[in-house]
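Submission checklist for the structure archive. All mandatory fields must be present; incomplete records are returned to the submitter.

[x] Identifier: OmpR/PhoB-type domain-containing protein
[x] Organism: Enterococcus rivorum
[x] Residue count: 234
[x] Sequence attached
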Amino acid sequence: MRKIGWISLGEECDKKLHELENCLFSIHELNAETLAKDLSEVSAVVIHHCLKENSTVIYDWLMDLTMTAHKPIWIITSLEEEYFQRLLLLKFGVVGIIDEKYPIKESLLMLENMLKHIEKVPQPTHNNEKQFIVAENSDIQLNAHNLSMKVNGLEEVEFTRIEYMIISELTKNQGMMLSYEEMVFHIWKEKYSEERRYRLANHVFHIRRKLKKRGANPNIIKTIRSKGYLLANS
C-alpha cells in the first residue's frame, strides 16, 4: 500500500482524517521538524486546507515541500478559492486542487491513477558517495544530492532544501558575514522583509539543533546582532 503525506491546515481538517481509514493509501501526517525524512517515505502529499484566515501558511508549506523533495502535491479545500489564488497555487507546483464536496475516496483514486503513471517513468540513479563537496580550507563537506553535510567527519546531518540552501550559502562565504538582506535574496529571491527575517531565523534555529543532535558544534553559525549570519571555522 502506498503511503501519502498528509498536512491538515485548520481544526476542521483534523476531523476528516478518520474518514481515510481503510482507503487506498496509508496516511502519514507530515511534521516540519522531520520533513526531509518523511518525504522520502511517501509517494505524494495532500494538503487539506481549511484556514479562512492566515492563508499564507499554505504557501510556507508549499515552499518547504517543493524545495525539499520532488513529490506530487494535491490540495483538498472547502474554501472557494479565487481564480488568481488557484493559479498561484498551481504555479507553486500543486498538481491539482480538489473541492472537498467531492467524496474523498474519489479524489484519492484520481491520485492513485496519477501515481501509477509516474511510476512507469524510469528514474535516474545516483552514486551518493561521490556527491560530497569539501569546502575550501574547511572541515565541512556538503552533499547536494542528499541535502546534507558533515562537519569534522562526524555523522551526516540531513536538512530540508531551504536549510541546505542556507548552510550552503554560508559555507561558500565561510568567515564572512552575510547580511539578512543578502540571505533573504539568495534563498527566496525577494526583497528583505521582517517576515522573511523571522523565517530565516527559524530555519537557522533548526539547523543549529540538527547539528547539535549529530555532535557538531551548533555555534559554528554565528549571529551578528542586527546584521546577519557568519559561518565560523569548524
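[x] Structure attached
Curator remark: The chain has eight helices and twelve strands. Confidence is low (pLDDT under 50) at residues 122-130.
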